[in-house]
Automatic annotation (TrEMBL):
Protein name per its UniProtKB record: Nucleoside diphosphate kinase-like domain-containing protein
High-level lineage: Bacteria, Bacillati, Actinomycetota, Actinomycetes, Micromonosporales
Organism per entry: Actinoplanes lobatus
Source domain of life: Bacteria
Length: 282
């Protein structure tokens, strides 16, 4: 946990009763941020937001860290999301920036959004992580900063530390080597994820397709699981690409075929809680 910056003496004098307006925040510069040499751009956005960088930590995130930082995903219910996060975040250096300033939580969120709007290139190329909730910020800061003497004072929040559970899916570890699958798909999901084209279901072509849109209530795992059931015989790689492409495009044709097959497909998606779907002309 090296740091070229002197300790920030005021950090230790923050009264512990200050539950909401903690003047501290952090941002995680992901491996792609460092690889693409975007740190300077991020740091200028931090300064524009009125924040100071009080400590820097080079870290190499491990699979265990991923599971500590995002416990709303677990290996049995979210093996796909975790396989992609492992591929994206682990094994290469990241950097944690400990930030200080007025309303640091909100300011750091604004920095994250500004940086992503400028540099993000796809679902696994969004450059920075920052917490969306104060409770999440406090919990993740404890994990990322707790080993540094300067930064170890716990963040304070009056919010629950855990994010709400996210919808799980099938345990696809039974069906495929997910690390190998992610390695194979990785080049196809940089930038806008590749569109693998709709699955052809039974029956003559009606000139219609079932479309899948973006649904933030779902996860990659819950969406792929719904597709697994709604598109009989679909290959896992095909379902993953359909899920990722629809999440980015907002409307991807996932199935063509006869009227009955398309209706069955839609009904199965609804049964699995997918609402952002419907029929349209091809
Ligand atoms: Zn530190």
């Amino acid at each position: 946990m090296g740091s070229g910056i002197p300790p920030e003496p005021t950090l230790r004098r923050i009264p512990k009763v200050c539950l909401v307006d903690d003047p501290r925040a952090f941002l995680l510069l992901k491996p792609d941020c460092l690889r693409l040499k975007l740190s300077g751009s991020v740091e200028r956005a931090i300064i524009r937001a009125g924040l100071r960088i009080v400590c820097r930590h080079r870290v190499t995130v491990s699979p265990a860290d991923v599971r500590h930082l995002w416990p709303e995903y677990d290996d049995a219910g979210h093996p796909l999301a975790l396989a992609f996060l492992d591929r994206y975040l682990t094994g290469e250096p990241s950097e944690v920036l400990h930030l200080y300033g007025q309303d640091a939580f909100e300011a750091a969120r604004r920095v994250k959004r500004e940086v992503r709007s400028r540099h993000a290139e796809g679902p696994f190329a969004n450059v920075v992580h920052g917490a969306e909730r104060r409770g999440e910020m406090a919990r993740q800061a404890g994990h990322l900063l707790g080993r540094c003497d300067v930064c170890a004072e716990p963040f304070h929040s009056d919010e629950p530390p855990l994010n709400p559970a996210r919808p799980p899916g099938r345990d696809f570890r039974e069906d495929a080597d997910l690390a190998a699958l992610v390695d194979e798909l990785w080049p196809l999901v940089q930038g806008v994820p590749a569109d693998p084209g709709p699955v052809r279901l039974e029956g003559g072509d009606t000139g219609q397709a079932v479309y899948l849109g973006s649904d933030r209530e779902q996860t990659l795992d819950s969406t792929v699981t719904a597709l697994w059931h709604a598109l009989p015989g679909v290959e896992l790689r095909h379902a993953v690409l359909l899920a990722l492409h629809s999440g980015w495009s907002g409307g991807t044709p996932i199935a063509v075929g006869g009227r009955r097959a398309l209706d069955d497909c839609l009904r199965t998606l609804h049964t699995h809680g997918v609402r952002a779907c419907g029929k349209g002309v091809t």
